[in-house]
Amino acid sequence: MKVMEDSEIRIIRHYSSKHKILLVGEGDFSFSLCPASAFGSATNITATSLDSEDELSKKYMDAMVNVSMLTRFGCDVQHEGSSSASAVRRKRGDSYHTQHKTTYPFSDWEIKRLAKAEGLKLVKAESKFELSHYPGYTNKRGSGWTSE
Ligand SMILES: C[S@@+](CC[C@H](N)C(=O)[O-])C[C@H]1O[C@@H](n2cnc3c(N)ncnc32)[C@H](O)[C@@H]1O
Question: Is 145 inside any structural domain?
Fold first, then answer.
């Protein structure tokens, strides 16, 4: 795990304990828990799921444990959120990160075009998501009997 410490600022990959971070569309909240654990705090993180608490506990075996750890780290956890990055006041220098599949049918989403329509510009694309860069994170399906 590449975690660097600079007195009070802690960094893991693209994320710093100085950033104000909004995570939208969590599955079992293992992604949010990764920077929270690296920072030793999550008071700068808001983590959201479209699922209700009830749905989360039915779908993912670790969701509620992860949520409880996040809450202990001071994370603002919200469920059934209509949270959206566009609802947050933008300022110059803000960045939006998305991880998504690029094969069909996901390619039809045309993410670059959608972002451009929102006035955003692609700064960098990484062709491979390195799971090992985010210790503890396990990618989940959103629905169906195989959600876990
Ligand atoms: C493929 S799952 C990935 C879950 C999680 N981000 C992960 O990496 O494990 C897609 C997630 O997006 C959420 N989602 C779908 N539409 C959404 C929306 N409009 N706003 C917020 N979340 C949404 C679903 O509830 C689901 O949890």
Answer: no
Ligand 1 centroid vs 5 CA: distance in angstroms? 31
Summarised one tens digit per residue, pLDDT across range 67-77 is 999 999 999 99
Q: Whose CA is nearest to atom 12 of ligand 1?
A: 25
Other beta carbons within 10 angstroms of residue 68's beta carbon come to: 12
CA dist., res. 20 & res. 94, Å (int): 10
What's the 142 CA to ligand 1 centre distance in angstroms? 6
User: Of 83, 93, 75, which Cα lies nearest the Cα of 39?
Assistant: 75
CATH number for position 118: 3.50.50
138, part of any domain: no
Cβ(141) – ligand 1 distance below 6 Å: yes
| Ligand 1 binding pocket includes 43 (Cβ within 6 Å) | no
Helix, strand, or coil here: 113? helix
All residues at 6 or more sequence positions from 123 whose CB lies less than 8 Å from its CB, including other chains: 95
Q: Give pLDDT tens digits for 54-95.
A: 999 999 999 999 999 999 999 999 999 866 666 677 788 889
How many domains are contained in the chain? 1
Does the beta carbon of 142 sit less than 6 angstroms from any atom of ligand 1?
A: yes
Residue 90 falls within a domain, yes or no? no
